[in-house]
Amino acid sequence: MSRTDRKLRVVLAEDGVLLREGLIGLLARFGHEVVAAVGDADALREAVAAHEPDIVVTDVRMPPGFQDEGLRAAVALRAERPALPVLVLSQYVQRSYAADLLDAGDGTGVGYLLKDRVGQVEEFADALARVADGGTVVDPEVVRQLLRRHRDPLEALTPREREVLGLVAEGRSNGAIARRLVVTEAAVGKHIGNILAKLDLPPAEDTHRRVLAVLTYLRA
Amino acid sequence: MNPRTPWQALTRPRFPLGAWPWRVVGYLASGAVLGAAAGALFLVLGVFSLVLVGLPPLLLSGIALGRVERLRTRIVDLDPAPDPHRVPTAPGLAAWLRTRTKEQATWRELAYALLLATVLWPLDLLALAVGVGLPVALLSAPFQLAVDGHEAKVVKAYLVTSYPEAFAVALLGAVLLVALAYPLAAVAGARAALARALLTPRETEKQAIGEVIASRARLVDAFEAERRRIERDLHDGAQQRLVALTMTLGLARLDAPPGGPLAEQLAKAHEEAGQALTELRELIHGIHPQVLADYGLGPALADAADRSAVPVETDAEALPRLPRAVESAAYFAGCEALANIGRHSGARRARITARHAKGVLRLDVEDDGHGGADPARGSGLTGLADRIAVLDGTLTIMSPPGGPTLLRVEIPCPAPTASSVSSSPRTASSSGRD
């Protein structure tokens, strides 16, 4: 299915009124419908139960505690409905948050983006669509920070393979990665094959190997 | 309730059979030995003080002896004997001396030391001689008789010549041993009470110390609360507005005719708003990182390590959740150390280790740089040392020229309660993967 023409029904959780209204406008601009916009984690779970949306977009920090209620609600929602795509917007890069989120369910159909990213409206809309389609999107900023850490099991990867894995973590397809690195799609496929082999992820029916590779990457 | 002093113990029916008589004897015997030794020391110091060099140690010996005596009192007095001294106002020997000489407690300790060296230890010895020595001597009459064969002089006064007589004397000794345990316990109780009266803080001192610590701790708490408030205000106010602004500008760019001057202006405005947002985000993170509140010290340190320019290994797994002020002080100490490593050390690698054991949090930050770090010059480190000192902790820097450098923070804090651990069930799993 093409992403650009899919109209999504979105449940939005964001306690800041200004940002909430802005996001509603932005989503409408790209043809999506916000079926419910709520301001706290409990209301988010009720809204999801009531509307069964295509995707949930939520802030990490929300009332009443202003800690990580939004993230916890997202993790709980994923536990109840593993197929529900969730996009979490975070105030800043946080590996622990991203890892918690990817651990909930099989890691597909989740996104973890820096709040700043919504300013890049087209990128944001693209990420939203990819998550709704079952993709995994991790903020490039998280990816960039993780690249500084050269530790097992990523030690075995060549710099090029790490670069490719970073782009996989950002949720990009082989085609997109090929265009980005100016190589052929076949070359990307070969790199990914090497990565999966080095990370010891043999082909299997019921696991999403690309996601497992990203999880390995996040935990390294 | 179990007895906590000899006085309470000797009212119990089974007193002679329990551990208390042994405690009493141990207390008095160690007192006699310590007192005799102190007496000898004072004699020597007294001679030296005629030529003045012995005077300062003589004056200070009270402080040392007071400490030993407070520990020794625990043999017969189970309630804690707190230290009456104040924390010196500044580091260094001079400040320590200034504080100590101005304290009444110091002079009470010296008075006690002199009393112990002259009067108390002979009394201890006398009490032991009468309470234990005499009955034991009587008890030994049959043995003495057996050794000698004909006669035994008990307590160098009473001549015993037959076994019936000797066993009668021994029986008397046994009765006396039990009977005298009571007055002996009373004496030990009086000794311990005297030591407690002279060597532990008076009510007024206790209050003063308690209040100073409490007010400094309140200040740290207020400081922490203020940090969090500022962070939240920025997050809910300025940051949100900036995000909304970049969003609006982004949407406007979609609608502006491409390639025209308007699109160009919008692109520039958009980029600048984005940069302001990035700067603000870093600023907010520096004020009080949310991950510290949500996940605790381990993940927050791992996060700080991620941001470091120098590759940092973190080993802060399985840290429990600790009091907020402790987590915060340790976190900022770690960040400051990493910042210094990045700026000054020339290090290629660094390592953070954090452990909580036996009620102490210990944080080590090591690097392989060229060393020579001077805490006196780094205002950041001095400020941190102050914050850690308020929590009764210490900050140590070992940095010989040529390296390596080790910064160590130790903060005493109780093991967390079960509830505070269960309130953050993700801590273990999230730090476990770092």
From TrEMBL, chain A:
A Gene Ontology molecular function term of the record: DNA binding
Response regulatory domain segment(s): 9-130
Sequence positions bearing 4-aspartylphosphate: D59
Keyword Transcription assigned: yes
InterPro entries with a match to the protein in the record: CheY-like_superfamily, NreC/VraR/RcsB-like_REC, Sig_transdc_resp-reg_C-effctor, Sig_transdc_resp-reg_receiver, Tscrpt_reg_LuxR_C, WalR-like
Keyword Transcription: yes
GO biological process: phosphorelay signal transduction system; regulation of DNA-templated transcription
Segments forming domain HTH luxR-type: 150-220
Pfam family, any one: GerE
Keywords in alphabetical order: DNA-binding, Phosphoprotein, Transcription, Transcription regulation
PANTHER family xrefs: TRANSCRIPTIONAL REGULATORY PROTEIN NARL-RELATED, TWO-COMPONENT RESPONSE REGULATOR
Protein name, UniProt field: LuxR family transcriptional regulator
Species, as recorded: Streptomyces vietnamensis
Lineage, uppermost ranks: Bacteria, Bacillati, Actinomycetota, Actinomycetes, Kitasatosporales
TrEMBL record, chain B:
Any single GO CC term annotated in Swiss-Prot or TrEMBL for this entry: membrane
Keywords, ordered alphabetically: ATP-binding, Kinase, Membrane, Nucleotide-binding, Phosphoprotein, Transferase, Transmembrane, Transmembrane helix, Two-component regulatory system
A Pfam family this chain is assigned to: Sensor
Documented EC number(s): 2.7.13.3
Domain Signal transduction histidine kinase subgroup 3 dimerisation and phosphoacceptor: start-end pairs: 226-292
CDD domains assigned to the protein according to its UniProt record, in alphabetical order: HATPase_UhpB-NarQ-NarX-like (cd16917)
Catalytic activity annotation: ATP + protein L-histidine = ADP + protein N-phospho-L-histidine
Domain Putative sensor positions: 27-199
InterPro entries documented for this protein: HATPase_C_sf, Put_sensor_dom, Sensor_HK_TwoCompSys, Sig_transdc_His_kin_sub3_dim/P
Top-level class of the enzyme under EC nomenclature: transferase
GO MF annotation terms: ATP binding; phosphorelay sensor kinase activity; protein dimerization activity
TM ranges: 20-41, 47-65, 110-138, 166-188
UniProt-listed PANTHER family: NITRATE/NITRITE SENSOR PROTEIN NARX-RELATED (PTHR24421), NITRATE_NITRITE SENSOR PROTEIN NARQ (PTHR24421:SF10)
The protein, known as: histidine kinase
Organism: Streptomyces vietnamensis
